[in-house]
Amino acid sequence: MKSYVLSVLVKNHSGVLRRVSSLFARRGYNIESLTVGVTENPKLSRMTVVVSGDEYTVDQITKQVSKLVEILNVEILDPETSVFRELVLVKVKTTRETRAEILEISNIFRSRVVDVAENSLVLEATGDANKLSALIKMLEPFTVLEIVRTGFAAVRRGEKSFSGEAKYEED
């Protein structure tokens, strides 16, 4: 099954996230990743939802989500014309002997050290999912204590604005 990234523009009201996620659950669709945040217009939020399925299934999901009252725009983002990023925090066990090697790996992946403790480091990295997975794999021999991933943030390339295309009139 292929993964698809949906960009969903919604009214910034309480309960919208619950209604959208409930629609997925009722239909038996699994959400692989979900990121939500306010847009340049504080009355609007943008959801980036990653789902797996075939083309027909994702088309059905898009149509069903579009029918919800609070939804202003839904688009399947094309990887060729979009930018996808994710953030990961990785807590790694360290010793005096391993700290330098972990820092070298961190530099290779352009991650930052955001916390230092006597026996651990917390690294912050951003990038596409493959880069972040590769970083984690390189750190596994040192004992990864904890991983926190944000999920995808995604935007179309170019000057067209996704939220600018939606017609929004305040209730």
Structural class assignment: alpha+beta
First-last Cα distance:
40 Å
Question: For the residues shown, what is the average pLDDT?
Answer: 90
Given as residue ranges, the uncertain stretches (5+ residues, pLDDT < 50) are none
Q: What is the tally of beta strands?
A: 9
Helical fraction: 25-40%
Give the topology string: H per helix, E per strand. Answer: EHEEHEEHEEHEEH
Main pleated sheet: 5 strands, antiparallel
- Total of helices: 5
How large is the radius of gyration? 19 Å
Global morphology: elongated
Residue share in β-strands: 35-45%
Which short descriptors sum up this protein?
171 residues, alpha+beta, 5 helices, 42% strand, elongated
Short description:
With 171 residues, this protein is of the alpha+beta class. The protein contains 5 helices and 9 strands, in the order βαββαββαββαββα.
Task: Describe, in plain words, how this protein is organized in 3D.
This protein has 171 residues and is an alpha+beta fold. The strands form 2 sheets. Strands 5, 6, 7, 8 and 9 form a 5-stranded antiparallel beta sheet that branches. A 4-stranded antiparallel beta sheet has the order 2-3-1-4. Helix content is 30%, strand content 42%. The chain contains 5 helices and 9 strands, in the order βαββαββαββαββα. The relative contact order is 0.21. Strand 6 (112-117) and strand 7 (120-127) form a beta hairpin. The longest helix has 13 residues, at 96-108.
